[in-house]
Amino acid sequence: MAKKRVFICDDDKGITDMLEMVLELEDVDTFTETDSVHAYDRLLQFKPDILIVDLWMPIVTGDQLIKRIRANQELKNLYIICISASRDGLQVADEAGADQFMAKPFDVEEFLNMIEQAIGSAA
User: Fold this and answer.
1) What pairing do the DSSP bridges indicate for beta strands 4-9 and 79-84?
2) According to the UniProt entry, which residues carry 4-aspartylphosphate (predicted)?
3) In this model, does residue 90 exceed pLDDT 90?
4) Which CATH superfamily is domain 4-121 in?
């Protein structure tokens, strides 16, 4: 079976690096983007199975990106995990169309469980 492709979009390089390191424990290929302006084009280019996206990023916010993905025939079935330190993040993520939400800071174990669930759903 081909490796699942996970795309991480967060404007905090520390977060993308940490998530990429954690995901090395899973059998997945990871791609990262810290500039949300480029995220949509890179999604079209890489066609990942799972997107991990931060809600609050400058210029293009995570919820704007999710809405744009859900409106695209090619990407609409992408499994999306939204991460955020925002108090109303869960509601914003749900309204945008995310599959899962995880509040920052999060537990690595909890994150890995969510990824395994996403890998199963993205099959």
Assistant:
1) unpaired
2) 54
3) yes
4) Response regulator (3.40.50.2300)
d(CA 25, CA 39): 24
Which pLDDT score, from 0 to 100, does residue 5 have? 95
Q: CA–CA separation, 28 vs 57, rounded Å? A: 25
Has residue 122 got a pLDDT over 80? no
| Domain extent listing, the chain | 4-121
- What burial class does residue 120 get, using C-beta atoms within 10 Å of its C-beta: 0-12 exposed, 13-18 middle, 19+ buried? exposed
pLDDT of residue 1: 64
Indicate the pTM of the whole model.
Answer: 0.93
What whole-number distance in Å separates Cα of residue 120 and Cα of residue 91? 24
Give the chain as a DSSP string. -PPEEEEEE-S-HHHHHHHHHHHTTTTEEEEEES-HHHHHHHHHHH--SEEEEES--SSS-HHHHHHHHHT-TTTTT-EEEEEE--TTHHHHHHHHT-SEEEESS--HHHHHHHHHHHHHHT-
Q: Are 105 and 54 in contact (CB under 8 A)?
A: no
